[in-house]
Write a structure and sequence with these properties.
By secondary structure, this protein is of the alpha/beta class. It has a single domain, classed as Alpha-Beta Barrel (TIM Barrel). 43% of the residues lie in helices and 14% in strands. The chain is built from 15 helices and ten strands. The strands form two sheets. The protein has a seven-stranded mixed beta sheet. Strands 2-3-4 form a three-stranded parallel beta sheet, with helices on one face. Strand 2, helix 4 and strand 3 form a beta-alpha-beta unit. The structure holds ligand V47. Ligand V47 binds next to strand 5 and strand 6.
Length: 363
């Protein structure tokens, strides 16, 4: 007896033969009621890519400031004025102090992002990277989303490619995937008015790739998007990856509505979280890694997602502000021992990786 219902057999054959799925098949899968069968297919697709290995890294997040000139409805991290309660901006020494402590604790990747600050000079961002690079020559600096890059460029009168080049020279090693939200031009203004378009996001990632900077990609789901809009987002990423090959991993981000202007929405259910991970794995045939972000999913659901196509568990993290501002009940930190246990207990082999997926240690 096969666990697969008959209507999924043709897709199962395509997965075995490593054939690309169509938009219609993506929609069909995203709406399929049999979650266990989706998981089975996604697990198969994942094992065809990286076998039983599941990756994690020893990383830390640094959010240099929550001041932002934008007012995205999806976000509760931002403050529009320095006078607002809770508004903060870290100076270079504060950032270095944090980074030193993380580095001594074994962290090898810093994920550095912040709001679109109304008045920090461009030199501030270059100085952060240069100082970190000088003190910690072997640390990976996954810094500044495409949205920040675009903002720096506009303020400086430079092209985004020039900014990327200067940041790279200052020590940046890759770009995080934040800011993608949902590419649909219907949805985007409703959840993130004024944010760069999906086309611009993709163009900046392609520019980064052309300069030898790998990047990550994300999709924010579980708000007002349709199934078709989700699949369109995935297909745009797949096409961009066909062109440049510079995306390292895809991170589906489930919307947390608490405390945001969209607090009346329910957010995704656990089934939805697993469905999006599974369908992402099946649609994104040219992405090696699908990342389960436990801050968003909770550590337990992130562990379960390892049976639904995910093969990367992010990470030790240490301190997270964006999701916690929107009601995340997850802890801020997972030890390496815990990550190893979660992966091992899922029947997979834990592998510690560096920022660009070189193997650091196999468990
Ligand atoms: O772009 C903001 C999302 C993203 C909310 O590249 C929200 O390795 C849910 O991109 N509910 C930032 N999501 C986080 C991010 C990320 C995380 C982990 C790893 C990587 C990586 C990237 O968080 C934002 C936005 O899409 N976000 N507010 C919210 N209320």
């Amino acid at each position: 007896m096969s666990i697969l219902p008959e209507d999924l057999q043709p897709i199962a054959e395509k997965i075995e033969n490593k054939e690309r799925l169509t938009k219609e098949e993506g929609i069909f899968l995203m709406e399929h009621p049999n979650l266990a069968a989706l998981g089975y297919l996604a697990d198969r697709a994942r094992k065809l890519k990286t076998g039983k290995q599941v990756f994690f890294n020893n990383n830390a997040h640094i959010n240099y400031s929550n001041l932002c000139v934008m007012t995205c409805k999806l976000c509760n991290f931002y403050k529009n004025s320095a006078d607002e309660e809770g508004a903060y901006t870290m100076d270079r020494e504060q950032i270095l102090e944090k980074a030193r402590a993380y580095y001594q604790a074994g962290v090898r990747e810093l994920h550095i992002v912040g709001g679109l600050h109304p008045d920090l000079p461009y030199q501030y961002y270059l100085d952060i990277l240069k100082s970190l690079r000088t003190e910690m020559p072997d640390i990976s600096l996954k810094a500044f989303t495409a949205v920040e890059i675009d903002y720096f460029a506009k303020r400086e009168g430079l092209s985004s490619k020039e900014v990327l080049l200067e940041l790279k020279e200052a020590g940046q090693t890759s770009l995080p995937g934040g800011g993608a939200e949902l590419f649909s031009s219907r949805v985007r203004p409703m959840i993130a008015r004024g944010k760069i378009s999906g086309e611009k996001y993709l163009a900046i990632h392609q520019e980064a790739h052309s300069l030898g900077l790998p990047t990550n990609a994300t999709m924010l789901y579980g708000h007002i998007e349709t199934t078709e809009e989700r699949i369109d987002h995935l297909i745009q990423l797949r096409e961009a990856q066909d062109e440049s090959g510079g995306f390292q991993c895809f991170i589906p981000l489930g919307f947390h509505p608490e405390n945001t202007e969209l607090a009346h929405l329910a957010g995704p259910s656990g089934y939805d979280d697993l469905r999006v991970i599974a369908v992402s794995r099946l649609m994104l045939d040219n992405f090696e890694y699908i990342k389960a972000y436990w801050v968003m999913l909770t550590p337990k659901l992130a562990q379960i997602s390892l049976a639904f196509g995910a093969n990367d568990l992010d990470g030790t993290v240490r301190e997270e502000k964006i999701y916690h501002a929107a009601g995340s009940k997850s802890p801020h930190f997972q030890s390496i021992e815990t990550l190893v246990r979660l992966i091992r207990d899922s029947g997979n082999q834990p592998v510690e990786r560096d920022s660009i997926y070189n193997i650091v240690r196999e468990y």
